[in-house]
Design a protein that fits this description.
single chain; 3 domains; 13 helices
Length: 269
């Protein structure tokens, strides 16, 4: 039994440290989190959901969406401090659009937005959820989610187009990382690739299949042009390698020749 006490004590200490860190994290997040946690039950649910969200991972706390003063419990829900409660369904896109400006602009071009104004279509939280906000990914375009309202036909077309472009972007990014490690000046291409990815991802919310397919074709063409520049970098790396190998070979021959001359000189003496 004595042998079991040491690992058991260690586990208890680790659990205690983890609990203390969790309490500290909640305290640092502001009075909204600590108060809702203390209230328990349904009032604590938003905190538990938020803690497994992309917002939490990125450091966006309650006041980031709801406003208010997170340092003062008496001012936390004061409208004069910018506090806003839960938005109504037709206000959700404007609520999220405070940060996701480009996404909302594209969403408002879509049939989803038009239907949401009539109380029939999805808004941001339909797909991304509210407090447990999901990281944006093409996995959110799926039959289970889309078929709640309509067939998955257009969704499948969009996903196929997006995935083909995303694969090309990821492969190009991996190559740029490799070229950067080899000392090539790729910053301009990296910035261009980042802008291309952002513009492509924002297109998801337009739901305009022909426009999306056209955009992905454009992206694939631009990646193809980038590859020509990357190929030039690879040629430069190969030239450097051959020049380096030539210099190394010359130095080896030179050293070998000098050693032979030195031995010959010593033998003559």
């Amino acid at each position: 039994m004595g042998y079991l006490r040491i690992p058991l004590i260690g586990i208890l200490l680790l659990l205690g440290v983890a609990h203390a860190e969790e309490k500290s994290d909640r305290k640092n997040a502001g009075v909204c989190v600590s108060c809702h946690t203390d209230l328990g039950g349904k009032m604590a649910e938003p905190v538990m959901l938020w803690e497994r969200s992309i917002h939490h991972q990125m450091g966006n706390n309650c006041e980031g969406c709801h406003g208010g003063d997170p340092t003062d419990p008496t001012e936390a829900m004061n409208p004069e401090k910018g506090f806003v409660g839960a938005p109504k369904p037709d206000q959700v896109s404007a609520f999220c659009g405070k940060c996701h400006v480009g996404v909302v602009e594209n969403y408002r071009k879509s049939p989803h937005y038009a239907a949401s104004l009539e109380g029939k279509g999805p808004n941001c939280v339909t797909c991304h959820r509210s407090h447990d906000v999901q990281r944006a990914s093409f996995d959110l375009i799926n039959e289970t989610l889309c078929s709640q309202c309509h067939s998955f036909e257009n969704g499948q077309k969009m996903k196929r187009a997006f995935v083909s472009a995303e694969i090309a972007l990821k492969e190009a990014n991996a190559e740029l990382t490799h070229l950067d490690q080899r000392g090539m000046p790729v910053k301009r291409l990296e910035e261009k690739l980042f802008a291309m990815r952002n513009s492509l991802h924002q297109m998801t919310h337009t739901l305009d299949v022909p426009e999306i397919e056209g955009k992905t074709r454009t992206v694939l063409g631009e990646v193809g042009e980038m590859r020509k520049e990357m190929d030039d970098f690879y040629r430069r790396i190969h030239r450097r390698w051959w020049i380096g190998a030539g210099i190394a070979g010359f130095l080896i021959v030179l050293i070998f020749t000098l050693i032979r001359l030195l031995k010959t000189y010593e033998e003559e003496e």
